[in-house]
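Hi D.,

Good news: the full-assembly prediction came through. Inputs first.
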Amino acid sequence: MAEAMLKVEGLVKRFGGLVATDNLSLDVRDGEVHALIGPNGAGKTTLIAQLSGFLRPDAGRITFTDRDITALPAAARVRLGLARSFQITSVLRDFTALDNVALAEQARQGHSFRFWQPARSDRSLRGPASAALEAVGLAHRADDPAASLSHGEQRQLEVAMALACDPRLLLLDEPMAGMGPEESARMVDLLRGLRGQRTMLLIEHDMDAVFALADRITVLVYGRAIATGTPAEIRANPEVRTAYLGESEGT
Amino acid sequence: MTELLTPFATWRGRIAALVLVLLGLLPLYAPWLDAAGIISQKFALTLMTRVLILAIAAISLNLILGYGGIVSFGHAVYIGLGGYAVGIMAHHGVTNGFLQFPVAIGLSALFALAIGALSLRTRGVYFIMITLAFAQLVYYVGVGLEPYGGDDGLTINRRSDFAGLLPTRGPDKTTAFYVVSFVVLLLVLGLVHRLVNSRFGMALRGAKSNEQRMQALGMPTFRYRLTAFVIAGAICGLAGALLANHTEFISPAMMHWTRSGDLIVMVVLGGMGSLLGPVYGAVAFLLLEEFLPGLLKVVLTWLHDGVAAVLGPGAGALESWLRLAEYWQIALGAILILVVLYARGGIDSLFGRPRHG
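Then the structure:
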């Protein structure tokens, strides 16, 4: 069995009286696509925020490639190889699409204490950034301001930026959020193409996408992981059916 | 070669070049203005030297405010630190400019490092209040410095001496100092242009646009913001050292919080996040400050005569009308409100949009 790349043990996060993450344990294995599903308010985005370093957990431990990263700042985690995309599109709106990805490449290459050479004509930045845009199918929008991109295109840009960080583990927070069926299908194709190359932890509401992509699925309800298993196991799990799948099929 | 000419392809670039050429050639046409009876040569050069120096200070503020989104409300403190460094050293007989200026710049940079390290961890109003508080702290230290004149300030008897390369007395000193200030302005413009387009500049501007996203890309934004804060402080300290030489006088008033407000007004008026914006802002602000009262008096006299022609003596004395010109800052305020409401990019945005966002 493949080794755990990311290990979460006994994670707790409270907001006042609300327990958003309730003694959660989870592991993501090297090379797998691990999907995280759960009804709204299950604490999925809160979990991603803790894994990526934007929220400090109240208790528990996060280990990434055998290193305790529980207290590490967000930017340092990215440099270790843990990059994320955002559920609510978060791009640099007044920069061009290419600039957005070039900044990711710039961060990946190390420190930015270079004060003299113009960054926008730096081939070592523009080259890989163009390639990343090409990979998500946005090459034709490279020089347009990110704010002028359609919602679907901004979602693609999100993924291109996360990919440009060259992460070992990619945290994807609802990459298909707000997308039409056609755009969704393209995103599923894109993510399927990344299988085997990147380890991914995928949060997604689109069940077809989840069952098409995931090697393993963890079901989150009220901040707790109630089940983890292959898509077939999850589909057959009675607890999951009542807590989540049944409910969503009923609506 | 063609690359050098690209700025002239747009009106924005042409106007920038025109403004710089007009500023740079002032010593050549100032005698002509004098002869034509428009403005005395000495007055023109003295006024415009002040404009150049405050433009340098405004450019340094624009680096953090316009490009970094860092609203420092205590930026004039570095003018004070740079000025006091020169003034205090001169007071003790150390007039070597090669010593004074590095001390002025270094002291400002160190102070910026200390303030920035503490304040850049906060956001919004808290950040503004902390920068303001630090600046006021130094202001009151200046007021309390009795050996150096306290509240009344200190006259500088000898300007910085650069191994005799620069005339420090005699009729040429005004022109020479203007030229030096202009060259420093050009160097600072060149430096900031390089900075904001470098990897460092992209990191700084990215942090302004979306700091959380930058961190999610692996950019430790704090250290780049702090570095920009220190560079801005150092450049403004240089402006302070120049200003002390220009006025041959230092006092706590140089770093009063209203001076910090003036710098913000210059940047906003000229155009935040534009290279030349602070220069336009400094020119516009200081020329309005200088000439608006006189201009208002002309307008008020004209209005008074018009009203008097209709009402006769009922119009009242001209003097009471002219007293209104004392409130010229109201007109400046109105101009600023118009800029903020209708020309967000300031004066610079009137000349067309920049090529990059």
